[in-house]
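S.,

Sequence below, as promised.
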Amino acid sequence: MPHLEKLYKEMKPKGLEMITVNSGDSKQTITGYWSKEKFTMPVGMGGSQGSSTYAIFAKFGVQAFPTNYVIDANGRVAWRSVGFDEAGLRAALKKLGVQ
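The prediction came back faster than expected:
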C-alpha cells in the first residue's frame, strides 16, 4: 500500500483520482492501518454480498487481490492488472495524459 500512497501523492496534482477498496478487513482494522501509515488516498470498505463494495467487485470481475484498474474520463476501463505492476500502471496513466 505505501507504493500506492506514493503514486497517489505524486499524481493527484496532475489529475489522478484514486480509490482503494478493501474486502475482508473490519472498518476498525482498515482505519487503524490508514491512520498508522498516514495514508491520504481514499478507501472503500466492506465486501459482503449486497454492499456497494461487493457490487464494485462483481461489476469489474475482481477475483484476486490486488486487482488494479485505470478508468478513463469516460468511465471505461483503460488498463487492468492482477498484482501490482507500477511500470504498467504508470504507462497506462501516461497514455491518458497523467504523468
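The first helix runs from residue 2 to 11.

Coffee later?
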